[in-house]
Structure formats: structure tokens, C-alpha cells
User: Fold Core-binding (CB) domain-containing protein from Sulfodiicoccus acidiphilus.
Amino acid sequence: MTSSCSRRLLNGKSKETAKKHYNYLIRTLGELEYTLTPDRLKEYVLDLEAENPNSARRSAKALKVFIKEVVRNRDPVIAQVLYNSFKIPQTTTTYVLFSRHSLMVSSELLPP
Assistant:
């Protein structure tokens, strides 16, 4: 990836966010063999969502940023088709609720 491409991808993001997007993008593009088509993108995100919803969400976000910042500058029509070909999977947060008994047990383990 060229340095100008990297700068556009990472522009306006914290270093940590930019690094995560870059890593997910490189992995995703490698798995897609650097070929982006609407059907392949949609299938890839759906397959990844079945395996790991959080990873699918991060990969989809990185792809959307790449399409928006890099592909759109080269060909806006193709970028529009690719961008709208898949959605970012929604994840749900699971909260673990403890009963009163289990809280008392865990508090007994804490030092006074």
C-alpha cells in the first residue's frame, strides 16, 4: 500500500484506531485475494459474522473506510456499489448478572 493511500486511510483517526483498521484491512484483503466484488464482500462479511461477530464488525468497518477513502477517489461509481453491497454487522453486549448469593461468595474471597 502506498504512503499516500495509508495517509488517506488513517487521516483524522487516533493512532490506535488507525493501526487496528490497517491490520484488519490487510488481513481482509489477503483473505479476499485483493479482489473486491459486491458478492464477495457480502459473502465474506456474512461468513465471518457466523464465525466471530466482533471480528466481522471490525473487518467491515475497515473495508468501509478503505472504500470511502481510497476507492472513491479513483472511481466513485464502483465505490458506491462496493460500499452499499454489505452492512456492518451489529453486535450485542452480553451482561452477566450475579445473584445475591454469588456476590456474597465472591466478596468472601476478597481480603478484608
In short: Residues 3-109 form one domain.
